[in-house]
Amino acid sequence: IAKKQPNCPLELRATPEDNAKGIEYFRENKEQIRADLLKHGAVWVRGFDLMQDVNGYRAMWQALGLEACLDPLHSSGLRKFASERDALYEEVNK
Prior knowledge:
Layout: E1 10-13, H1 16-21, H2 23-28, H3 30-40, E2 43-46, H4 54-63, E3 81-83, E4 88-89
Parallel strand pairs: 1-2
Antiparallel strand pairs: 3-4
């Protein structure tokens, strides 16, 4: 059964061409990324210049039509927001 399961998380690594597109990359690939998210349970988005700051991170998830959610550890006070408005948490073990 394990062989039939998709890899989780799926890694989506930016190429120079992807980075050149900026937010358009996510708009153009929205349907595929959302399908991959459903199939794999998670998509690990890596190396995108757009996501180097809070505003870019927010633009990415909005372009994909996603909504922000709270981390389960949020209510315990173990994780603080880097930006509450943008639903971006600080690193866990910094």
